[in-house]
Design brief:
2 domains; 15 helices; 6% strand
């Protein structure tokens, strides 16, 4: 056991001191925080500046229908098209909207001229305004009041509520559960492959450099394999925890600074809209804040985080043992391809079927794939946000531990023979012989 700990410490300290580990430890959180921060920043940069838009409407259907705002100033003109085009080029107008007189009675065609790329929101607004006006006039021509159509429209608010055995009721948010489940399963999938392949490459490097011959003289092959697997597992867990802490810190600092920068404007808006001292936020903000709190309360963070750590470690240990066996059986990384496919198929299968399991997380397919150790790390993470019975969760965890012990036993038999085997490309028949030794 002491030798395993020594190998573990060596693998851990060697890898955490590498420049690549340090760079990715800080670069990863920056990238993940950027995924959350950039949309917020872009949302505040929606202002495209004031656009002077000339509207030449030969039909007179749309005069006065385009509403002015701080970004779009519409000017209804009656000059010739060619003259207006020149004015656009000279900078008198940013855009020219030309609505020609149609051959039929309904104008459904329009042209926008500009010397620059036309903003998408501007063209969409013009198109939607024209569409609504044409639809309104067509309804009136048919003797139908457009206000009747508008009043017939309704917004349906559908709330999903889970009932527990004690009669309690809890709101559930399917979209959030789907996002959490797929995100967790994808993370585990990539972490298993990233850190599992590190085990395989490390063993191949030591084998080809003949360092392993010196190491084996002091420790047993099983101790060497377990030390490398657990050491790299701790490296992965350390990096993951640092990513979580640093990403949360970066995002929290940004939102704090951003909130301070936006504070006066928010305070002014609240002061203008609040009619009593009891209410500090507008009703709309209160509803949004209440919904956010309900969403957060509906997420069982201890179960999700604890399950993620367990299935990450369990899935990694299970597959890392197989990756270690593959690394010990070959002399270079190119020869690993024939063995990687059978090992990778269960993980890939679990990730593929996750898209179907989110629609039926309690079905028989979801149950069995979350119980089988080779697919449970990915599939169970999809089911957990939806709520999994503790009995099923315990069974899945127990079988994953048993699967890890089984794959470690198989990998150890291959490892002890293959680690000192050089100059030969073993096939599946040869591996079967090693298992029977």
């Amino acid at each position: 056991m002491n030798k395993i700990i020594l190998i573990l410490k060596r693998e851990y300290l060697t890898r955490v001191k590498k420049k690549s580990f340090i760079i990715m430890t800080f670069l990863g959180p920056l990238l993940m925080a950027a995924l959350m921060i950039v949309p917020v920043v872009l949302a505040t940069m929606q202002n495209i500046g004031e656009k002077k838009i000339a509207v030449l409407d030969e039909t007179n259907w749309f005069i006065g229908k385009f509403e002015q705002d701080e970004n779009m100033q519409f000017h209804y003109v009656f000059d010739a098209v060619d003259s207006l085009k020149k004015q656009v080029l000279q900078g008198q107008y940013d855009l020219l909207v030309y609505i020609p007189r149609p051959e039929l009675n309904i104008p459904v065609n329009a042209e926008i001229y500009s010397d620059r790329q036309i903003p998408l929101n501007v063209s969409s607004y013009i198109k939607n305004t024209m569409r609504k006006e044409v639809e309104t006039k067509k309804l009136l021509a048919s003797g139908i009041d457009p206000d009747v159509i508008k009043s017939a429209k309704a917004t349906i608010n559908l709330v999903t509520i889970r009932l527990d055995e004690d009669g309690g009721e809890t709101k559930s948010f399917t979209e959030i559960n789907v996002a959490l489940g797929l995100f967790g399963s994808i993370l585990i999938y990539f972490f298993i492959f990233i850190f599992g392949s590190q085990v395989m490459r490390g063993i191949i490097e030591e084998k080809t450099s003949r360092i392993v011959e010196v190491i084996i003289s002091s420790v047993k092959p099983f101790e060497l394999m377990m030390g490398k697997i657990t050491g790299i597992a701790l490296v992965g867990l350390t990096q993951f925890l640092l990513w979580v802490v640093l990403t949360g810190s970066i995002y929290g600092v940004f939102m704090l600074i951003y909130g301070v920068a936006e504070g006066p404007q928010v305070l002014t808006t609240e002061s203008a809209m609040t009619s009593s001292a009891e209410s500090m936020l507008p009703d709309m903000n209160n509803e949004a804040l209440t919904e956010i709190i309900e969403v957060v309360d509906a997420i069982n963070f201890p179960v999700i985080i604890g399950s993620f750590i367990f299935y990450f470690l369990g899935g990694y240990l299970l597959y890392a043992a197989l990756f270690a066996a593959i690394g010990s059986a070959v002399d270079n990384e190119a020869d690993t391809q024939q063995f990687m496919l059978p090992v990778s198929i269960p993980l890939i299968l679990g990730l593929v079927v996750s898209n179907f399991i989110v629609n039926n997380p309690e079905g028989s397919l979801a149950f069995w794939l979350s119980i089988i150790p080779f697919t449970s790390p990915v599939v169970m993470m999809v089911r957990i946000p939806f709520g999994v019975a503790y009995g099923e969760l315990a069974l899945s965890m127990a079988l994953l531990i048993a699967g890890f012990l089984f794959t470690t036993w198989i990998a150890a038999k291959i490892y002890r023979t293959g680690i000192l085997m050089y100059g030969k490309k073993p096939g599946y028949k040869e591996l079967w012989k090693w298992l029977r030794y």
